[in-house]
């Protein structure tokens, strides 16, 4: 578990952690919350997709999407025709969003149904998404999104041309109001349940990479690059 | 890819699929959308957590949570003290939510940065969440949530007692306005890029189960049950 002492950073420590707000302090299991920058970044960087929430016609919408991170800025991209990206572009001063990533690290089996749980690491980011218009920032963001999927890949692919760039909207969300939540360890059974005859423990989960499948039309002379075999 | 002919079910086929609505027909990549009941259920059932979106003070909130399915009803649970569950209970006629699950099945590497993608299966459910008060439905929902994590587990654990039940809120979301979205296959490179010297293909991902870790205080005479080794 991360050091919860960082939850209320004083001035000299502020750079190491995000400042908790009413929205980022959970009502339950506060000991699971973390605001440490490195912890937040590592959880974000390990996720292939985020779940992006926004409000449309008064109702919530949650869509999975790729994303990238550059320092304290997150980027998502999409077709200029996609609804949320159009809305982020049109709305002044931007589109209120909530961006969440979650890793399921294990299934927690307790003797009691009540104490069943999962081990997980999640990050929730609240903020306002803005369309990025600066050409240099847009290019850096698109590289970050590709490199988020496979580190090092943007340098080994054809960069977007002007037509592709024109068709792509890039939206930025700054990491300011953000928190992580982490559960680790075994089941928290009640003492009265310990003698029950049910198996208790954790079934850990891990991400598995399967052997890469070359495209049908790939030149057989092109081998699998190291940045893929090292995943 | 699922049969897109089921997207506009006529009366005799209606039972097999969910009816598309304005919210469940994507603005892009419509060929990836699916409304088949079995496809939607299988994607939901394979996910350990969903991302539940709702609106608080005009802003979106997206939180990961366990869930269970009984036929065309989804259930989430939580402490009666948790904010979204309180809101679903207080609000008449319920709390507008969007519940989304996503599986990342592979990393899709194209020659061009623009055509990078992932293979995925997602389900998005729109609807109104209601607090469940019927005791029998509440018990069935809690069993479904435990069995969603490990099928068969609810029968091999101590059921919730009255005190635990009183502390647990159960919320229901009916599967009505729902769609799946699926991408499979290799990269869609432009013909002009096929001769570029970049590796292209798919890196498939798979969920891995690691050997179960018994709780420290587990009686060593209790072996790992079949329903866990069969995961």
Automatic annotation (TrEMBL), chains A, B:
Stretch forming the signal peptide: none
Region (Disordered): 1-30
Top-rank taxon: Bacteria
Gene3D superfamilies with a match to the protein in the record: Electron Transport, Fmn-binding Protein, Chain A
Transmembrane segments: none
InterPro entries: Pyridox_Oxase-rel, Split_barrel_FMN-bd
UniProt biased composition (Polar residues): 1-10
Record-linked Pfam families: Pyridox_ox_2 (PF12900)
Protein name in the entry: Pyridoxamine 5'-phosphate oxidase family protein
